[in-house]
Fold this sequence. Notes:
It contains eleven helices and 22 strands. The chain is of the alpha/beta class. A hairpin with a 6-residue loop joins strand 10 and strand 11. Bound molecules: S-adenosylmethionine.
Amino acid sequence: MAIGIPKKDKLLDDNQVELVYAHKKSYQEIINSDLVEYQSIYSHASPKRLYFGDNLDVLRLLATEPEICGSINLIYIDPPFATESHFLSRKQSKAYDDTLTGAMFVEFLRERLIWLHQLLSNHGSIYLHLDEKMIFHIKLIMDEIFGAENYRNMIVRQKCNPQNYTRRTYGKTADFILFYTKSDTYIWNQPKVPLSENSKKEYQYIEPETGRQFMKVPLHAPGVRHGETGKPWRGKMPPPGKHWQYPPKTLDEMDARGEIFWSKNGNPRRKVDLNEHSGVGVQDIWLEFRDAYNQNVKITGYPTEKNPDLLRIIIAASSNPGDLILDGFAGSGTSLAIADEMQRNWIGVDHSIEAFKTILNRFEHGIKPMGDFVKSSGSNSEEVYIQPTLFDQGASDQLDNRAKRLDNQDTKITDFSIFVPSPIPAQIEDIVKTWQGNG
Ligand SMILES: C[S@@+](CC[C@H](N)C(=O)[O-])C[C@H]1O[C@@H](n2cnc3c(N)ncnc32)[C@H](O)[C@@H]1O
């Protein structure tokens, strides 16, 4: 049994809300299942691991490894969204099915989230990507497992360009990322963005002596104080009901440094210098991370692959170089490739053969502009996009030429191990052999 799993099912606190649905298993049922055996078919002395298989088996297995359980600092998961769809790659190969809905979907994810909670370190964070269909159900499940007090944000992401619907609703361009932490002492590197052009316009004053651009803000704040900040400064009391933001000594020092602007009537204001502004903290509405939306955007061709910049911001904010990051629904390997690029270690899991091939191909060749059209062989129809992979016969020459001019991935990713269930699935063995042959 994994360390830290509650021996009994938790009782509800007076304030707690619980989602009730058919066939909801107890914690005991979830943790008391048998382990599936996995073996390594490509190994490297590195903490980075790629698993082919069902993530429930893999998470359970990882929880038995003392050096991994409780050591993962960041989890990003982008599971199926209960769309009732069958996803194909751009080459029309089967990628994965997304057919679970309602209670079955909730329980599928809940089982995995219970294990992910065990695996996460005390300073760790989890980001869970879903859309409007199941986000509200899963928010309650996350509160149950991670604790409502560890909820941090529900990030609203613009996933695509505005759509010109004729339906009688507003266009649906958002999906959502739930951000929870294991505790309140979590890793956090405040991400910032530069001031917008509109905000810069607020810095409308220029200091004649230096040319510095600044804005004026009050030196007082609401509330009466009886200490230093409630006393007169340079013979002036703070306005009624207010106090100085700093004690008189600090105000004197600021004035000596030229940080205070005096109006004609002798009212002091604080100067805020545009050049000293380090940017504004990133907020919870993300408009800059749409998935591939034009012909120049680089992709693998795997369905539902996410924008690499989305992962860059999450990884930068919630982990540090050398940390271990886990993605249990790795798909095309976006989070793994970006974690690698940012000098983090990673564990990725997916049970789709197409995902497995795509990840190896991405590690070998990087990603390519989606608009690089190639004619599908034997077709007279319109040109369709097909991104050749190292598993396509005859595609390697084409890839080599294209790689020279298109690829910006400097180094191949090879320093990881591959784990598969026993007995080794024949198709996976072949894929790994082909990949090694090309490497
Ligand atoms: C939405 S996609 C992830 C896309 C990924 N974020 C990317 O950027 O490419 C969901 C992935 O979860 C995988 N998946 C679904 N159920 C799984 C399971 N039980 N075990 C492992 N992988 C699973 C699917 O094969 C699919 O690749």
